[in-house]
Amino acid sequence: MLVDSHCHLDFPDFAEERAAVVARALAAGIGRMVTISTRVRKFQQILEIAESFNEVYCSVGTHPHNAAEELDVTADELVRLSGHPKVVAIGEAGLDYFYDRAPRDAQAQGFRTHIAAARRTGLPLVIHSRDADDDMASILEDETGKGAFPFILHCFSSGRRLAEVGVALGGYVSFSGILTFKNSAELRAIAADVPRDRLLVETDAPYLAPIPHRGKRNEPAYVANTAKVLAETVGVSEADIADITTGNFFRLFTKMPRADMAAG
Ligand SMILES: [Zn+2]
Ligand SMILES: [Zn+2]
Fold first, then answer.
1. How many distinct structural domains can be found in the chain?
2. 12: preceding bond cis by omega (within 30 degrees)
3. Which ligand has the shortest distance to the CA of 155?
4. Which-ligand-closest: CA of 129?
5. Does the predicted model carry a pTM greater than 0.85?
6. Which ligand is nearest to the CA of 152?
């Protein structure tokens, strides 16, 4: 069994056929999907999707693109919303200096609010970081110094040093379809050096479809293509990479029940 630790099933790309997308994932052996919140103000939509499917869980948080519009969301509010049984993570939050859609100080402020919520709940923080390696590393080091919290560097596409800092601070590193792209040799070299007990896979669907689906709409079933390349990169079998990444997922997502595992 594989899991898709990060997808966006609430996006309009899936509106027409969300149930079919989930069914295809289950048929492909993807036993769990986490649909990731990007706006706390739209959290109810995410929650409704998670409540509609046994195998779909969700997070609560504000994407760095939307940070300026949700600076009034407090750690208390995140903690309260995360009390729902279907909420298994905080985020995604972080820093995106590639698009810079929100002022950088607003991104950092929102990010630290999410860190506080992750620390208080013990739920993993889903971290989005793009072209912000130095500031991300320093915030993680600063905040971890105040008290550890579980986290994932999601859709990892940063430099080697950020992966090393994240791992040293106890974090997990999640790889998306980018890992399968021909020009991602450096990323594969980084993945090969991440300790096996910190590896995760995800789609970030509808974005970033792995080869051979590159350029099309991504969906959770395709996480298998990324897992296959990760297996080759790490030098283990596909069955082993499934065991490794799924085992890591359940160890990190402590609120996620294993008992009712789908047979699909
Ligand atoms: Zn992201
Ligand atoms: Zn995302």
1. 1
2. no
3. 1
4. 1
5. yes
6. 1
Q: Each residue of 135-181: pLDDT tens digit?
A: 999 999 999 999 999 999 999 999 999 999 999 999 999 999 999 99
pLDDT tens string 88-145 = 999 999 999 999 999 999 999 999 999 999 999 999 999 999 999 999 999 999 999 9
- Give 63-74 pLDDT, tens digit per residue: 999 999 999 999
What is the residue-wise DSSP string for 97-153?
Answer: TTT--S-HHHHHHHHHHHHHHHHHH-PPEEEEEES-HHHHHHHHHHHHHH----EEE
- CATH number, residue 20: 3.20.20.140
Q: Where in the sequence is the domain holding 132, given as residue range(s)?
A: 2-261
CA of residue 72 to ligand 1 center, whole Å: 21
d(C-alpha 55, C-alpha 50), whole Å: 8
Asked whether residue 203 carries a pLDDT value surpassing 80, the answer given is yes
Residues whose CB falls within 8 Å of the CB of residue 154, separated by 6 or more in sequence, listed in order:
5, 6, 36, 91, 92, 126, 127, 128, 174, 176, 202, 204
Ligand 2 mean position, distance from CA 178 (Å): 13
Cα–Cα distances in Å, from 68 out to 37, 111, 191, 258? 16, 11, 33, 37
Rounded Cα–Cα distance for residues 1 and 80 (Å): 32
Q: How far is the CA of 124 from the centre of ligand 2 (A)?
A: 15
pLDDT in the model for residue 259: 57
